[in-house]
Amino acid sequence: MVAQKDGLSKSVVTKSSIETEDQGREFGKSLKPGALVFLSGELGAGKTCFTKGIALGLGINEDIKSPSFTIINEYVSGTLPLFHIDLYRLGGGDIFELGIDEYISRGGVTVIEWAERFEETGEDYFKDAVIVKLSYISENERGIEIG
Length: 147
Prior knowledge:
- By secondary structure, this protein is an alpha/beta fold.
- It contains 5 helices and 7 strands, in the order βαβαββααβαββ.
- The chain has helices at residues 17-29, 47-57, 93-96, 100-104, 123-126, and strands at residues 10-14, 36-40, 72-75, 82-86, 109-113, 130-136, 142-146.
- It has a 7-stranded mixed sheet, covered by helices on one side.
- Strand 6 (130-136) and strand 7 (142-146) form a beta hairpin.
- It starts with 9 loop residues before the first strand and ends with a strand.
C-alpha cells in the first residue's frame, strides 16, 4: 500500500458545498495508486460532497452518490479507479466481509466513509490511511481537517 500522509496536513473551513467539493478536488489530485482515505464526521458534515471532489480530482465525471445502501460504489473512468465505501450500516465482522483488502490492492483510491466504525477491528489500516475529519459548523460551513 502507498502511504499518502506526507505533506497533506491541512485545516480549512468551507462556506458552501461547492467549496467543500473544491477542497476534495485539490486533495484528489494529490492521491496516488493504493491511497487509502478515511473520512469521519457526523451526518451532514460533507463526507460525500468531499468524495465528489476527490472523484473530480481523479478525472471522474460520473454522478457520485453516497453508498449508504449499496455499501460500495466503484468508479473506473478516471486516471485512477475510485472505490467509495460507506460503513454507516455495518459494524464489527461485517466490515471484513466486504473484502476491503481486495479494493486497496487494486491500485486505485479507496475512500471509506464512517471510518471510525472500522477503528476497533481495522486498526492496522489506520497507520497507512490519510484521515480526513469533516465537521458540521453551520448550515453553510463545514470544517475539514486533513492529517
